[in-house]
Design brief:
By secondary structure, the chain is of the alpha+beta class. It has one helix and five strands. A five-stranded antiparallel beta sheet has the order 1-2-3-4-5. A hairpin with a 5-residue loop joins strand 1 and strand 2. The radius of gyration is 13 Å and the shape is globular.
């Protein structure tokens, strides 16, 4: 799944309480809504953990949070080494919870 649309990412400076829902589009052009349930930092980069908004029982998605002059957006993690670091950090995060 990939998404290059700008999305508001909830952070500690956000002055309102909400569930952040984003729409991701897969390679076939199918759109699906996901909820950002967690953010984490790995080596000075930010990542979002997303789960399907429809509640279907399947694995979540981890995406990198990018930022440009138009705001924040989500992108796929394409580098294998980066992916391994992020997965290891996520596993450590879930072990501590």
């Amino acid at each position: 799944m990939s998404d290059n649309n700008n999305v508001h990412i909830h952070d500690e400076n956000c002055d309102h309480d909400h569930e952040e829902v984003v729409t991701l589009t897969d390679a076939e052009g199918n759109e699906r809504e996901f909820i950002i349930v967690e953010e984490m930092n790995v080596e000075n980069e930010r990542y979002a953990i997303l789960v399907p908004a429809d509640g279907e029982d399947e694995d979540g998605v981890i995406m990198k949070i990018g930022e440009d002059e138009n705001g924040e957006y989500l992108v796929d993690i394409e580098d294998d080494a980066e992916w391994q670091k992020v997965v290891a950090a996520y596993e450590k995060l879930t072990e501590e919870a």
